[in-house]
Design goal:
The protein is 76% helix and 0% strand. With 151 residues, the protein is mainly α. It has one domain (33-140): Tetratricopeptide repeat domain (Serine Threonine Protein Phosphatase 5, Tetratricopeptide repeat, Alpha Horseshoe). 22% of the residues are buried.
């Protein structure tokens, strides 16, 4: 029976791999509804994402969307892909922040780097918008340059 040594050694391996502090931190949080918020405040990206989703689902005012955005940003900065995708959506739609296609695209690329797929299909729309915006800026620059040449 080689399974016995593995089971006996598993707690030791968890200690060596640094999992024990996470377990201790979780033990310090109360059970019940406050648990997820406690874990989120202690830096758990999964819990931060969940608090963000709860806030997003209940949001009806710009302030409530901004609260969701804040929790998603905390998780996203820790490379939590689902939070990065939600940030992309929120920046693209202007929920809780000004609409910002460039920020949406950056967060979407980071989410893809963390293996989160574009389920809503916003990537082609953002790319098209950014290309049209760049073309418009190029046209505006050419027109102002032509006007300057005539003076």
């Amino acid at each position: 029976m080689k399974i016995f040594p593995v089971i006996v050694c598993l707690p030791l391996w968890l200690l060596l791999l640094g999992a024990a502090p996470v377990l201790a931190e979780e033990a310090e949080c109360p059970s019940g509804a406050e648990r997820v918020l406690c874990l989120a405040e202690r830096g758990s990206p999964q819990a931060q994402f969940q608090v963000g989703m709860d806030a997003f689902s209940a949001a009806s005012t710009p302030e409530e969307f901004a609260r969701a955005l804040d929790w998603f940003r905390r998780a996203a900065e820790q490379e939590y892909g689902r939070a990065q995708y939600m940030l992309a959506m929120m920046h693209w739609e202007g929920w809780g922040t000004a609409r910002d296609a460039e920020a949406a695209y950056r967060w979407l690329l980071r989410a893809e780097g963390n293996r989160v797929m574009d389920g809503a299909g916003i990537k082609p729309r953002i790319e098209r918008f950014l290309m049209e915006q760049q073309a418009q800026e190029t046209d505006d620059g050419a027109e102002s340059g032509a006007g300057d040449a005539g003076n």
